[in-house]
Structures are given as structure tokens and as C-alpha cells.
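User: As part of a screening pipeline, I want to sanity-check one entry by hand. Below is the sequence and the SMILES for flavin mononucleotide. Please return the complex as C-alpha cells so I can compare it with the automated output.
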Amino acid sequence: MQTTKTQPSRNRAGAPTHAELFEPIRIGNCKIKNRIAMAPMNTVFSMDNQGYPNEQIMAYYAARAKGGTGLIITECVLGTRLASRFPYTSNLHLFNGTHLPGLEELVETIHAFDAKVFIQLSIGFGRQGHSHDHEAPYAPSAGIPYQTLPEMLPAKMRKLVEKSGFLMNPKIPTMIMAQMPREMTREEIKSEIAEFGHSCVLAVMAGFDGIELHAPHGYLEHQFLSPRTNKRTDEYGGSLENRMRFVIEIYDKVREMIGTAIPVGIRLSGDEHMPDGIHHEEMKEVVRVLGERGIDYVHLSSGSYEATKYFFPEKDGTMLDEAAGFKSVLPAHVPVMTPSVHNPAMAARAIREGKTDLISLGRQLLIDPGWANKVQAGEKFRKCTRCCECLSRTVLGMPVRCLHNRDLGREKYMPEYWRPTRAKGRLVMPQFAPLP
Ligand SMILES: Cc1cc2nc3c(=O)[nH]c(=O)nc-3n(C[C@H](O)[C@H](O)[C@H](O)COP(=O)(O)O)c2cc1C
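Assistant: Here is the complex for your manual check:
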């Protein structure tokens, strides 16, 4: 209905340009029309709505779907009550039935604009979280403070942060510094995993086409994986086998609860890029084990908020080697998704050379939601300058904006992105089969 078919541009030999980007792909039982995903990005649009979707969030995702993106991955949605008490800003929520109607409408809207939609679901931010009442955030181990050093920020973001003088102020709760964490008990670990499994059932009921477990960037699952932040002496700490137990138990619980109803993937940092953190070879082993257990895809990222410059790279293609590393340990049918390749020629080549199967675009889709259609049609698109104004705002807990795209954050006023008045092809009952 709202979509128009884009005519592919052709090179001198008459072949479509960047054709690899526009080949369909299967992730588990979900068919995606091209190799272009929208990377999850916390928008802080639901701040005034306490984690429930609103008109702005729907129109914002509709714009990216209408722009030809094959797969929308939502911002990181908080999947347990405990997680929702310790974000550093505000995110969408999904852990009880009241969250269902809004998310179901979000799914319907994205489907109406001809894209698939996966939910990125988080079990918590751990030591990178903040409570508003200064209650200590929960983490694998106590007493390991968290702080981003200026030299670990991307250069342009560092300039912004230093200029504002605000973001580095320890009195202001931002993503730069968090409160001293406390250790999670084993009982808490088990009950969080159980609640998270239930939230995944809600995700199926809301109609999402897939679930992405949020485990990169130094968040809770990552903290368990990393010898830097996990000093436990029980079965969740010590050896790599023990450090990966939390992630594996989460994955197993999700499968136990939803079976193969929709694909389940995971986002992981390919390397923590901290001297005492978890490195690529150990991360590959985590990925290999998940591949063996049946994970449907792996979405790569890099670094953590302590090593921010690695996951907000200053140039294209910095993660492609780590992507190839993950691919080397996964079964051939399990795709890998790689962010931060904004250049279409480089993206198409990376797919052709087998380094990655899909690309995911973050900041590039903030500045130009129509990247996919424009690339396919051979039209010019607005290039992201990687200035990080977008991120610097959300780090401060403010809704995302883009210096070069003044429409970002105002999509709700643009009728071309309004959600449909009548859902197309929706089932009255969600499809659960086959459940275990
Ligand atoms: C404003 C903003 C919010 C983000 N929030 C998330 C998030 O919720 N979950 C996540 O896994 N990554 C998040 N990211 C990281 C992006 O998914 C992506 O990996 C990163 O921006 C690099 O890709 P790019 O160069 O295309 O921007 C965020 C990025 C930005 C700019």
C-alpha cells in the first residue's frame, strides 16, 4: 500500500548495481527481502510515555521501513522489571501484558510499510545502568566501577563532550559513568532468566518476526562473559565455560519458551577491546557454542561503553574482520550481520566475499531513512558524517536528533509515515506453532 517498487539502477554492462545487497535472505523461518537491516538504536522517544510506544516511535520506524530497509531491529527493549529500574535513559519496555497493545501496533505499522521487524530484548544493563534513586545496579560482581575515559570516545564525540562540559560531570547521570554495582545472587540470576523467557513469549504474541538477544557493548550478558567484570567464584565465573553459562542459560530458556516459532539471534561484541576484557578468540568460542545449540543469526558489534570508539567507528568496515571470524565458526546457514558499512560498494563487496551476510545501518539511517531505495535506484543519499550528535544526546537521556536531518524526531507530523488505519493481512490470533 504505502510502498512503491524501486527500479534497480544498472551499470554499463546492464547488471543491477550493488546487486548482492538486494538479494533476499532467510533467517530461520523468516524471509527478508534484502540484506539491509536497521541497527537497533535507542531513541529515547518513549521517555514521555514510560516505555510504551507512541506516535513518534511508530512514524520513525515507518520512515525507515518505507525507505526500503528489509529488516527493522527495534531499539533495545527492556525485558524484565529489574532491567527497567536500571536503564541509563529510557527505552521501550516488554515484560507484562500492558506493553503488548502498543508493540503489536508497532509491528503492524512496520509490516504495512513492507519490512520485517525483530525486537532487540535486554535482560539488563548491569553495571552500566543507573537507578534514579541511587540504588546500586546489579552486576556479576560487586565493586567494579564503570567509567568511559575521554580517549575511548570517537574523536568527534570527545570534542562534543568536552565542549559541553556537562556530559563529563559525575553528578549528572549519563552513560559516561555509573553507580557502584552490587553482585547478583544466584536466585536473582535464575528468576531474571525465567522472567526474560516469559517476555519472549510476549514478543511472539506481539507479532515480532524475530528476537535479538541484547548481549554486546558491556551490558549485563557481556559483563558475565568478560573476565574484566566477572570475578565470581561460583558456576557463573572463572573459566570461559562458566562465564558463558549466563548467556547460554538465557538462550536455552528462550528456546524452551518459544521453540522455533520465530528466529532467535544474538548481538555480541566481536572483541571488548580492553586489555583485561574478553577478546575475539574467546568470543568466537561463545559464538561456536551458540551455533551448535541452534542460534538463528549473529549480529556483530564491537567494544563496550568503556571502549566506545570501537562500536561507533569513525570509518566504514572496521568490523568486517571480526565478522569473518564469527562466520568461520558458525554453520553455513547461520547468517552474520555487520554494522557500520555505510558505503554501498563496500557493503556489496563484503557480502560477495563472504565476510558478512547482511549489513546493519545505524547512524546512516538517522540521517537518511531512504538509503536502501536510493542505493537500489542509483540515487544520491545523504552521508552520515559520524559526528555523533545523535549518540551524545541519547547518552544524556534526550530524544535522538540529527544535525543534518531536521526531520528526525518529527516523523509523527509527516502523513507519509502515519500508520495504516486498517491492518493488512493480520491474524486475529498470534501463531504459536510449533511450540515445544
Ligand atoms: C543513538 C544510538 C543509539 C543506539 N542504541 C543501541 C541499542 O539500543 N542497541 C544496540 O545494540 N546498539 C545501539 N546502538 C549502536 C548501533 O546499533 C550501531 O551498531 C552503531 O551505531 C554503529 O553503526 P553506524 O556506524 O551505522 O551508526 C546505538 C547507536 C546510536 C547512534
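Points to compare against the pipeline: The chain has 15 helices and twelve strands. Residues 16 and 277 are 43 Å apart (CA to CA).
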